[in-house]
Amino acid sequence: MSRRPPPVEASCAQHVLLIDDDADLLRLLSMRLKASGYRVATAASAVEARSRLGAERFDLVLSDVRLPDGDGLALFDEIRQQHPALPVILITAHGTIPDAVEATSRGVAGYLTKPFDSQALLARIAQTLQLGAPAPAAGQAADDGWRADIISHSTRMHALLDEARLVAASDASVLIRGDSGTGKELLAHAIHRASPRAAAPFVAINCGAIPEPLLESELFGHLRGAFTGATSHRTGLVQAAHGGTLFLDEIGDMPPSLQVKLLRVLQERAVRPVGATRAEPVDLRILSATHRDLDAALATGQFREDLYYRINVVSLELPTLGERREDIPLLAEHFLRQVARKYGKELSGFAPDALEALAIARWPGNVRQLQNVIEQVCALATTPLIPRSLVERALRVQPIEALGYAEAKRRFERNYLIQLLKLTAGNVSDAARLAERNRTEFYRLLQRHGLTPDLFRGGSPDAER
Description:
Strand content: 5-15%
Number of strands: 18
Oligomer: single chain
Shape: globular
C-alpha cells in the first residue's frame, strides 16, 4: 500500500494560473491551492489564459490538456516561447503513456491523469516550484535584493528576470542582447548578485571603448618591460575578477586578434599576461553583452564561431523601452526622485498629461534616454509638479499623438482611399474593385471623407498625416 505524501504548504505567496473549462474543478483546485498559501488566478479557455499571462506574472501554470478553444500542449508551446522559465503542469482525463512521454519530452514539468489525489498534486506543484527557485548562496538574501536596481512591473521583464535568476545559480556563460540603453550592465550586475559568486568581484570592461593596442594589456595584464611604457607589473581585469564575474560589454566590438586570446583563456581557465612565459590559473564566470547582431558577424567572419558558442551558453534579450511602456511612469518617478535628491529640489512628481507625454513618446535611446530626459526636466523645473510643456521641451521631438479608436479608424480609412485613388488615377471602378466593394458603396465612402475622384486624375492631395 503506497503512503500518501504529507500535506504541502507554499513557502511564500507564489502565483499559480489554473486553466480548465470545468468550473467546479477550478473552484475546488482554487480552494485547495489558496489553503496551501498560493495566490491563484483562473482561466476557462486558452484565450483567457493568454490574456492573463500577458497581464500578470505567474510562478506556475496548471492546465487541462483539452480546452474549449485549443489544445493544452499547443498552449504550452506558446508559453514556452513567451515565458521560457515558467513551469507548466498538464492534467487530463484521457491520458496515455505515449501522451505523457511526448509532454515530458517537450519540457512539461508534470503530467497528471484525472482523477488525481489532491495532496499528490500539491506535492508536485511544490517540487516543481522548488526546482525553479534555487536556494540562495551562503550570505545571500533570499528576497528580490539581487534585482533591486531593475525597476519594472512589466510581465515581459519579469519573465526575463525569472530566467536570469535561474541561470545565476549556475556558472554558465550568458550573452545579454539588447539595444543600447536597455540596461544590459544592470542585468549583468543582477545575475552576479544572485549567483554563488556574489561576494567575489564583479569586473566590467567595455570592449569598444578601449583602443585595440591597450585592450590586451587591460584584459590580461603585463609584466614590467613587456613593451615600451610598461614600467611596472600590471594585473589584468581577467585576474582581477578571479573567483567572481567578468562582464565583457560590447563584446561584438572586440578585435579578432583578442577574440583568439580570450577563447584560450576560457578553454584553459588560465591567463598569460603580456610578456610572461607561463599562464596562471583563473576561476571566473563570463557575462557578455552586445547590441550588435553577432549572427551576422559570424557570417562575415568578424566574430569567431568557437568564441561565440563559448560565451553564448545562455542568451537573454532585453526588451526595448517601447516594448515595456507600462514601465515608463514607474521609471520616470524613480529617476525623478533620484535626480531631485542630487539637485536638492523638492519635486512632487509629474502632472498626469506630462506622464502621458512620456508614455507615448518614441524612445530610440531606451531607458538611458528616459533618464536623461528626466534629469533635464528636473534641472529646469521651477514648480514642484512637472508640467507637460517641460517634458515635451526635453524630448525635443513632437510626441506621438494619442488618438481614440474612432479617429484612428477614420484616418486610416481616408488614407487607404487616397492611396487607392492614386493607384488607379481616380478610376472609381478600378479602385472599388481593389477594395472589394461595389461602386455605390465606394462612392459613399468617398463622400464620407470628402474625396473627389477627379482631383486624382490630374494630381492628388497629400495624405493626412
